[in-house]
Description:
The protein has a five-stranded mixed β-sheet with strand order 3-2-1-4-7, with helices on both faces. It has two domains: 2-132 and 294-311, ATPase, nucleotide binding domain (Nucleotidyltransferase, domain 5, 2-Layer Sandwich), CATH 3.30.420; 147-288, ATPase, nucleotide binding domain (Nucleotidyltransferase, domain 5). The longest helix has 25 residues, at 229-253. The protein has helices at residues 42-58, 101-111, 113-116, 130-141, 198-207, 217-225, 229-253, 268-278, 292-311; strands at 2-10, 14-21, 32-35, 65-74, 78-79, 84-85, 119-129, 149-155, 159-165, 168-169, 186-187, 190-191, 257-261, 285-288. It contains nine helices and 14 strands. It is of the alpha/beta class.
Amino acid sequence: MNKYSIAFDVGGLFIKSAVLNDDGEIVPNSYAIFPSKSKETKEGIIEHLVFIIKQQTNGILDKDFEITGVGYAFPGPFDYEKGISYIKGIDKFEEIYEVNLRDLLINRLKQESSFHSKTSNEFQIVFDNDASLFALGEHVAGKAGGYNKSICLTIGTGAGSAFMENGKLVRDRQDVPENGWIYNQPFKQSIVDDYISKRGILQLANELGLSTTDIEVETLAAMGKNEDQKAKMAFRMFGESIGEALNPYIKSFKPDAIILGGQITKSKDLFMNGVYETLENKTVNIECSEETSLSTFKGVANLLKQSIRKKG
Length: 312
């Protein structure tokens, strides 16, 4: 009997998903994007999550298969061990604040007899931070695999980070920030997340005199590629902030490489010179992931296997 897992990369607007086989490879044609419905009621969010689990299961063409688990890359704050969301005050997933998502989903899925009959005895639902899962996936099947030590940084609506050593996440050690998260660390006038993020680059563009009302980073990047000098300068300054923000962690953790992912990394040609300019350690390698979600899915499959092994 063939075994599959279902991975989800949850964002405020969209949920990306893929089905993976027992070898941790993405099943062809299983990649799908769903609306996140993050402003729905608690019941609406749970219903939607159950619906897309069933949708992905129904797409599996094997006659004889079982689902070993479902894994979520979920934004924080979140108690990943217990499966409880603590997201609040950012206009997404407000209604599941302090809700145990794992328990609710498992109970709901048990009521779906057609799905429940396809689950294995070891079926689990796991959660982790999206940057951690991206790092695990990059180690298993991406750019981080060639290095003993790496810092993985995802740049999008915020700054996700993970520290990897010999294929394992380092979360609680003197040479890394708590949980391996740099987003909440002091930087310039506030914290890293205010600078290394979508709002960070739009703020720079704003300060340079560009109107950023209702503008997306992609639009700003297109302007930069079309030689708009202010847009180009905003990206360069953004790169300088990235290098500056990474310096203390490169100094303490001494990685062989920095692996960049996330939506804004797609505009790397516009900001990379700025990164190199402010980076104090010029010997550290910088690699950019081709597709962040695909690495994240592979990280989810890896996490599920580890979790099943641990409980087995």
